[in-house]
Write a structure and sequence with these properties.
The protein is α+β, with helices and mostly antiparallel strands and 1308 residues long. 41% of the residues lie in helices and 16% in strands. The chain has 44 helices and 34 strands. This is Phospholipid-translocating P-type ATPase.
Length: 1308
């Protein structure tokens, strides 16, 4: 690469031993550390720098060049004297970066060291010099000089001590270290930090009544009078429950952190700046290796030309302040002030200000530029420098224009589908990249407003660095230059670069201070509705326990028993009955949730679905409100031209071939005639024999409308190479415009070239240029105007020598039908056709044109110029002029219908969800018209349903009439924009939400991310129903986190929504199966499981109560220690838990009858009614089992044989009762259920020998001799039959008289 130091390369052979001197002898300072300005990490490696590099830092250009010319002659004796000049003491000048070469001390050496024509003894290069010699400058900036002093660093830099106050404005030094500390640029969706995990999770766990209750029971065992058995029998189950829940939370959060780490480690190219402090442009460590290369590749003949070239360049510009090279940094290491290079389709990692827009690599470069692919940025041992010197200048190859334009996609940030135009400031666009360290960006405090930014960029004066007695260069202007910055100069985090260009942008806000992060609410721990219901039921169980204990103590007459006062006895009863409140309930439910999550993630029909929050799968079965984003969720954000109407004929689908035929005829010259440019007045040429007059008229109309659509737009074509082929891509702010231009290309008229002044169209069939126009004025689309126009002047004559003298001037305009109706000339078909297209969900645009005479245009032009200079009401003045001269009686050419392609199966999915009783709201940041079209095309709004639109409502008085209207028409769809929604939520919050929740569909447009979250929270708090939010972009994260259930779609542009969501899916249609099948099953299974676990705990407590009554109300345990623990674990756990595999209907039936899902809203599966039915069954069965055991076997005092026999009968029947009850509850059998029931029965009977002995005196619980007798078996069978048959009989009768819905649909 041509840098200044290359011109003092040696060309003579290296054999001359006189000059092969040791560095230490040449300059003792070479071994000393470099200036303190240099970063510490470079010092140790550069303590022994090559002498020719050190001396080369004095830019006495004339002397150096003269010395190079001297190389052409034979070595002369004066060289030794010159060496003496260099060898003079250089201490003062080398110790200060700012005064180097400026002091003019007499001691200063007069020549750079590298005038030495020969290289000193070659030292082995250090590791650092190898690395830096391998760092190539970026291809798009290869002109720049390689420099010395590092300004900003990612690894070794010491952060500023003082943290920046986020409430004050900031001044950002570009490419350098900042004076204040700013937050790291890391994304975090984690709920916990390592030190907040235990306190927060334990608080969450013990806020559940059931866990608090068991903690108190376990602690009570420390008090001796209350102790009933081993302390571990109470502590262990609780510890087990808590550890399982904590483990699950930890795993969920670790998975979140892992995903965050993935996003945070995405690599970005950052420019590193090094200051040319001594004036040569040698990057540290790069000099010697580059000289070796150039000494081989350069020939003497070319050196004078290069010297002249360099002189010219340096005298014109002076040396750049800095040089730079590219490094790749992970997203999380980006810091405020970093200059990042971004390419097409790259996600923006932080909030930035655009400094420069560089054209794609195939932009024209200067004559001495090397093709970019010859200068790859590689790190290897060799620095390939092309023979030509490889200087691709930024100025010639780079800028996409003086204003540096680029398009970005913001749908991940604000949901808008239109591309946004972004500009670099003229001050930075034209600035040499090496001067960027002189820039300071002043920005306001971090703010959540994505459409607002006020700032400034300042260019500091260049510091005088060099002293040259031969040519005193005038110093740079000492004044600070500044330019304003607005929203058009910014690119916010999570937007995507859409243009085929490279952008250089400086990071201004990072991490939690970005617009995206400020609009996002912090993640919260979500608790399922089922858990809250169970929490309420356990309080009833606790009341039941307390009442039972009190009743037993009261029946005993509050007397002392075994020396214990009555309240101690009551406490002992409470502990005995603690199984009524089942500690295993949470464990069973948590394990059940993990099973449901496994089912969801391993469902082949919804591949790629991820459960990120495994605590709320049951809530998927209780959703009543679905809040959906539009862009990327319901739609693909891909536009396609579907229909065009030209007044008498409508073309769509296959009929487009007819349009192509007309276009081909119009733009193909008759055989034998010279090819000339077409203008709107050109005769419509078509063989008269083959066409009727009507067809000729239609053909002429089609030509006019296609030509109008091919010219009236703001689209720029760019050519890129893909897989070896040149592909044309289009850039514009609106995807609609691109769809229309793609359509004109498909029918035969291609946009070949477009710049600010002109546009060229080519015939696709012949490949000839057919239309060329000069662009006189453009009037871009605005959300207020809803139309865009263009004034063009047509070139005419032969293609080879076109002329625009006396060329036709035409005004073309296209826009929404609402505004164009009054602009176009009177007609009888426009309203009808636009209404037809709108019903199909197409986005309509009306196209018109008007011919202007030269005089009319001149008058218009002068009036427009006057209006443009007005300081007040400029926009209104311009609009008036345009309206007066142009927007009157336009010739109506046609109407186009563009479709926003929907995601796969969106229509049937929304219909099924509506039938399932779910009210669907669409919240989007997009325009009102777009939202209306998608609501219709996706069948979110039923055919013929009235849409009540509220927009631009600024006064609260107007809100009343709208609310009153909706109150009387609750079957209408409400369409409201963000401004009106804000007004409603501010002044009529309760009234608005009370009406809105009754409507079948609500569409809110122009919503900010915060508004989306507010709506979700409002519905939740007002209705107390479950709300599900689904989205795919960063702008949906707040809404997703505010919902009870957040579902994220893995979008094209990013995974932010899916990372923050509770469930991540790949397509919207997967949501149906997630809710209607998995959600329904999860809820039904958990409801059954929880009631069964309650039944299991209650029945054993009833047995204990019956025993206590029989033993004169003494609070002694019936089942002790292992029997108690074994009952709730190995003897019943597996069969009861196997209920999570049960299902009442098949998947096909669930999809066929979404009404089955609607039933779940009532919560009948787990209600007070079902709960008390289970309590009644438990009381009946417990009383029968224990009562009949005592009647048939006898009671017996504790620790007697009779007691052991009675326990063996009642416990065996109790276990069998549970196993058979599970079997009775199963609807659909699974082999695991059968195995668990039979297996558990086998385990129980296999463990009896270990439970036994000769009774309790022999150390066992059972009397084994009695268990082996027939007496035990017949008594057990009778008791089991009496406890099981009545409940089963009642269940069968009830099911026959009033069958549940699932049995009805199965019967069909």
């Amino acid at each position: 690469m041509s840098a200044p130091h290359e011109y003092h390369q040696p060309n003579a052979p290296d054999e001359d031993s006189d000059l092969e001197l040791d560095l230490e002898e040449l300059d003792p300072l070479a071994g000393r550390p470099r200036s303190s300005v240099s970063p510490p990490r470079r010092q140790s490696k550069e303590q022994r720098r090559a002498y020719h590099e050190l001396g080369a830092r004095i830019p006495l250009r004339n002397l150096r060049v003269g010395r190079l010319r001297g190389n052409r002659r034979k070595e002369e004796p004066e060289d030794e004297d010159l060496r003496g000049l260099i060898d003079d003491d250089e201490r003062e000048n080398r110790n200060s970066a700012s005064s180097r070469g400026q002091s003019g001390d007499d001691d200063s050496p007069l020549l750079p060291a590298s005038t030495n024509p020969r290289r000193p003894t070659q030292r082995k290069p250090s590791a650092l010099s190898k690395l830096s010699s391998g760092l190539r400058l970026p291809s798009f900036l290869s002109k720049q000089d390689a420099g010395a002093e590092q300004l900003g660093d990612d690894g070794g830099d010491s952060d500023a001590e003082e943290e920046h106050d986020p409430t004050s404005q900031r001044t950002v030094s570009v490419g350098a270290l900042q004076t204040s500390r700013f937050p790291a640029n890391a994304v975090s969706n984690a709920k916990y930090t390592p030190w907040s995990f235990l306190p927060r999770t334990l608080y969450n766990e013990f806020s559940f009544f059931i866990n608090m209750y068991f903690l108190l029971v376990a602690l009570s065992q420390i008090i001796k009078p209350l102790r009933l058995g081993y302390l571990s029998t109470y502590i262990a189950p609780l510890a087990f429950v808590i550890s399982i829940t904590l483990g699950k939370e930890a795993l969920d959060d670790i998975a979140r952190r892992r995903r965050d780490a993935e996003a945070n480690s995405e690599g970005y190219t950052v420019l590193k700046f090094e200051e040319n402090s001594m004036g040569t442009g040698v990057a540290p460590g790069q000099g010697s290796s580059r000289k070796k290369k150039l000494s081989k590749s350069k020939k003497e003949s070319g050196r004078l030309a290069e010297i002249d070239d360099e002189e010219q360049r340096l005298s014109a510009k002076g040396l750049a302040t800095c040089t730079y090279f590219e490094v790749v940094k992970p997203s999380k290491n980006l810091k405020v002030g970093d200059v990042v290079k971004l390419g097409k389709d790259q996600r923006v990692p932080a909030d930035m200000v655009v400094l420069k827009s560089l054209a794609a690599d195939n932009a024209p470069a200067s004559t001495d530029a090397t093709p970019s692919n010859e200068l790859p940025m590689l790190i290897d041992g060799e620095d390939r420098v092309s023979p030509q010197g490889g200087r691709a200048t930024v100025e010639s190859a780079s800028s996409t224009g003086p204003s540096g334009e680029a398009f970005i996609r913001t749908d991940q940030l604000d949901g808008e589908t239109d591309w946004k135009l972004r500009l670099s400031s003229p001050l930075t666009q034209s600035l040499n990249v090496g001067e960027y360290t002189r820039l300071r960006v002043v920005a306001g405090k971090p703010d959540k407003k994505v459409n607002e930014f006020y700032g400034a960029v300042e260019l500091q004066p260049k510091r005088q660095r060099q002293y040259d007695p031969h040519e005193a260069e005038p110093s740079s202007s000492e004044e600070v230059q500044s330019a304003p910055l607005g929203i058009d100069n910014t690119i916010w985090a999570n937007t995507v670069v859409a243009s085929s260009c490279s952008l250089l942008a400086v990071v201004v806000y990072t991490g939690p201070q970005t617009r995206q992060a400020l609009s996002t609410s912090p993640s919260r721990s979500k608790t399922g509705l089922l858990e809250l219901e169970i929490n309420a039921l356990t309080k009833w169980l606790c009341v039941f326990t307390l009442s039972l204990s009190f009743i037993l103590v009261a029946l005993a007459g509050f007397r002392e028993i075994e020396g214990r006062v009555w309240y101690v006895n009551m406490m002992r009863f409470l502990i005995l009955f603690s199984t009524i409140v089942p500690v295993g309930l949470r464990v069973n439910l948590d394990m059940g949730k993990s099973v449901y999550a496994w089912f969801i993630e391993h469902d082949e029909s919804i591949k790629g679905t991820v459960v990120r929050t495994s605590t709320i799968p049951e809530d998927l079965g209780r959703i009543e409100y679905l809040l959906s984003d539009k862009t990327g969720t319901l739609t693909q954000n891909e536009m396609a031209m579907k229909k065009i109407h030209v007044g008498t004929v409508s073309y769509a689908n296959e009929a487009m071939d007819e349009v192509s035929a007309y276009v081909r005829q119009c733009f193909t010259p008759p055989a034998g005639e010279e090819h000339s440019l077409v203008t709107p007045s050109s005769a419509y040429t078509v063989p008269l024999t083959s066409a009727t007059r009507t067809r000729r008229e239609i053909g002429s109309r089609v030509r006019d409308v296609v030509l109008a659509l091919a010219l009236c737009h703001n689209v720029t074509p760019t050519t890129e190479e893909e897989n070896g082929e040149m592909v044309t891509t289009y850039q514009a702010s609106s995807p609609d415009e691109i769809a229309i231009v793609r359509w004109t290309e498909a029918v035969g008229l291609k946009l070949l070239q477009r710049d600010r002044e002109s546009m060229t169209l080519e015939s696709v069939n012949s490949g000839n240029t057919v239309v060329r126009v000069r662009i006189l004025n453009t009037f871009p689309f605005t959300s207020e105007g809803k139309r865009m126009g263009i004034v063009v002047k047509f070139y005419h004559g032969p293609v080879t020598s076109p002329s625009d003298d006396e060329g036709e001037i035409w005004f073309y305009q296209k826009g929404a039908d609402t505004v164009m109706t009054t602009i176009v000339a009177a007609n009888d078909w426009l309203d009808e056709e636009t209404a037809n297209m709108a019903r199909e969900g197409l986005r309509t645009l009306v196209v018109g044109r008007k011919k202007l005479s030269a005089q009319t245009y001149q008058d218009f032009s002068s009036k427009l110029a006057q209006a443009s200079l007005a300081l007040q009401n400029r926009d209104a003045g311009v609009a008036d002029v345009v309206s007066e001269y142009l927007e009157r009686d336009l010739e109506l050419l046609g109407v186009t219908g563009v479709e926003d392609k929907l995601q796969k199966d969106v229509k049937p999915s929304l219909e099924l969800l509506r039938n399932a009783g779910i009210k669907i709201w669409m919240l989007t940041g997009d325009k009102v018209e777009t939202a209306r079209c998608v609501a219709v095309s996706s069948k979110l709004v039923a055919r013929g349903q009235y849409i009540h639109t509220i927009q631009k409502m600024k006064r609260k008085e107007l809100a009343h009439s709208s609310l009153d209207f909706l109150r009387g028409k609750t079957d209408a769809c409400l369409l409201i924009d963000g401004e009106s929604l804000a007004l409603m939520l501010t002044h009529y919050r309760q009234e608005f939400i009370s009406i809105a929740v009754q409507l079948p569909t609500v569409v809110a447009c122009r919503c900010s991310p915060t508004q989306k979250a507010d709506v979700a929270r409002l519905i939740r708090s007002y209705t107390k129903k479950r709300v599900c939010c689904i989205g795919d972009g960063g702008n949906d994260v707040s809404m997703i986190q505010a919902a009870d259930v957040g579902v994220g779609i893995v979008g094209k542009e990013g995974r932010q929504a899916s990372l923050a969501a509770d469930f991540s899916i790949e397509q919207f249609c997967y949501l149906v199966k997630l809710l209607v099948w998995h959600g329904r099953n999860s809820y039904k299974r958990s409801a059954k499981l929880s009631q069964f676990v309650i039944h299991r705990g209650l029945i054993i407590s009833i047995c204990q109560t019956v025993y206590s009554i029989a033993t004169a109300f003494e609070p002694n345990a019936l089942y002790k220690d292992w029997l108690l623990v074994g009952y709730s674990t190995v003897y019943t756990m597996a069969p009861v838990f196997s209920l999570v595999l049960d299902r009442d209907v098949d998947e096909s039936v669930a999809n066929l009858y979404p009404e089955l899902y609607a039933e779940l809203k009532t919560g009948r599966s787990l209600s007070y009614k079902s709960f008390f039915i289970w309590v009644a069954v438990s009381i009946y069965q417990g009383s029968m089992i224990q009562g009949l055991s005592q009647l048939l076997v006898g009671v017996g005092a504790d620790s007697t044989t009779t007691f052991a026999r009675m326990v063996s009968v009642s416990f065996t029947v109790l276990v069998l009762n549970e196993l058979i009850m599970v079997a009775m509850e199963v609807t659909t059998w699974h082999w695991i259920m059968i195995a668990s029931i039979i297996g558990t029965g086998g385990i129980y009977f296999g463990s009896i020998p270990f439970l036994g002995g000769g009774g309790t005196q022999a150390g066992g619980y059972f009397d084994l001799g009695y268990v082996a007798s027939l007496d035990f078996w017949w008594k057990g069978a009778v008791i089991a039959a009496i406890s099981l048959l009545p409940p089963y009989a009642i269940k069968i009768v009830g099911r026959t008289l009033k069958p549940p819905s699932y049995r009805k649909v199965q019967g069909i």
